[in-house]
Design brief:
- By secondary structure, the protein is an alpha+beta fold.
- It is built from 9 helices and 15 strands.
- The protein has helices at residues 5-16, 28-35, 38-52, 56-60, 121-127, 129-158, 172-187, 202-213, 218-225, and strands at residues 63-66, 71-74, 106-109, 113-120, 162-164, 197-201, 230-232, 235-240, 250-252, 258-262, 271-275, 278-288, 292-299, 301-305, 311-315.
- The strands form 4 sheets. Strands 5-15-9-6-8-7 form a 6-stranded mixed beta sheet. It has a 4-stranded antiparallel beta sheet with strand order 4-13-12-11.
- Helix 1 (5-16) crosses helix 2 and helix 2 (28-35) packs across helix 5 (121-127).
- The longest helix has 30 residues, at 129-158.
- It is globular.
Amino acid sequence: MIASKSDCSAERRQKKMTYPNSFASASAADALAFLKSPTLLARRFEQIIADRGGFIAHRVLKGRWKMEGGALVYTPDEAISTDDAAEKIKPGGEYPMIELSADATLVIEALKEGFGTPITDEKVGRERMDAVERAIARLVNRLVTDFDETAMAAVASAVTQSITGTAWTSNPKSIVKQVQLAKAKITGLRLGFRADAIVLTDEQWAGVVSELLDMLPREQRNGVESGQFINALGLDWLHSPDLPSGWVPTVMDTDNLGGIGHEDIPSPEYRPVSLGQDQVAEVARFREKNDSTTVQVRKTDVPVVRNPKAACEITSTGL
């Protein structure tokens, strides 16, 4: 079948709107053509989420599990322990049998969260691509904030290990000592955990970054100035504005702390929103009868804190 001129024109407009640097000069027709493409919408969501720094929860909960039958069943790794010690064995002797701790199987129910926003044709005609950009930005900000606050609140409530520190801003050496003590608290459990990150609020990061600068080589100082995360004292220093109230600096093993359970829902209208190999959301668009287009985003992910002992809080830092 030969494509019509109108179809070819829409396709050209969609290709034109692939990159955000052309948005400022976009016409109303360009904006409507963009809204017709779920693929282009998903790509723009990816760009804005990446510019925002992504989800802190996806950075610190690195496990990825598919939820089958509406639930995730798992056993915490911390249940793999025994009170029996190894014994010496004579040549040809029998190996003694040991009893492992009872497995504490847990079940987490699947969860779908999402929201949408209408974009009227009048708004597109008056504001062109700006109307679409602001709608996407609102959805992204709400999506990231809601999920990160929920996930990191689960982390904060699950972690019970802590050390009592002293003010970091008055004595930079206390930062080194307390971070190393928190790491030792985790590794000292002998469960194979190795701390690789510390998570702070943006305000806590602002309070400690000047002290950290003196510990870093010049090339890493440049990274701090450009807003990048840094590695110091053997840890990635991560910070976010979307942490729950009362959060304290927390050292953690992000490979073992937990993960994200994801349920695949076969809705043909949705397109995946991904950062690298990690799917973080889905987006769809629906043309309405009242001269508008609804852009809708959903997240079918559930945070799972599998090993609370893989983290340690540092209290009384004064941050």
